[in-house]
Design brief:
9 strands; single chain; 0% helix; four-stranded antiparallel beta sheet; mainly beta
Length: 106
């Protein structure tokens, strides 16, 4: 369940305790932080959002990413080439800013 508006194709994190209905609470992941998965759909505040968590996922790139480069979360749940944050996976293909990055999650 979204604790803030969520955009499909962005990395999300657990953002609060479970909701009263028992759903996990998610929001865009913070830069450099850990991820729970990738939002499968857009969601407004308090709406349910599907989250992809396994294998290869498609995430919006926050910059140019080379194939096979490790990635981390940048701003607003986009992925960037790993600098000093937590590695969340690696790119299978090259991606450009605001394009789709195919990421193999760790």
């Amino acid at each position: 369940q979204a604790t803030a508006p969520v955009t499909a194709g962005r990395a999300v994190m657990i953002s609060a305790a479970r909701s009263a209905g028992g759903n996990l609470s998610v929001a865009h992941a913070t830069a450099g932080g850990r991820v729970f998965g990738v939002a499968a759909t857009d969601a407004a505040l308090d709406e349910l959002v599907g989250v992809a968590r396994d294998g290869v996922v498609k995430i919006t790139a926050g910059g140019t990413i080379a194939a096979f480069a490790e990635v981390e979360v940048g701003t607003a749940g986009r992925v960037i080439t790993k600098a000093s944050g937590t590695a969340i996976g690696y790119a299978l293909t090259t991606a450009t800013t605001d394009g789709t990055a195919e990421i193999s999650l760790y």
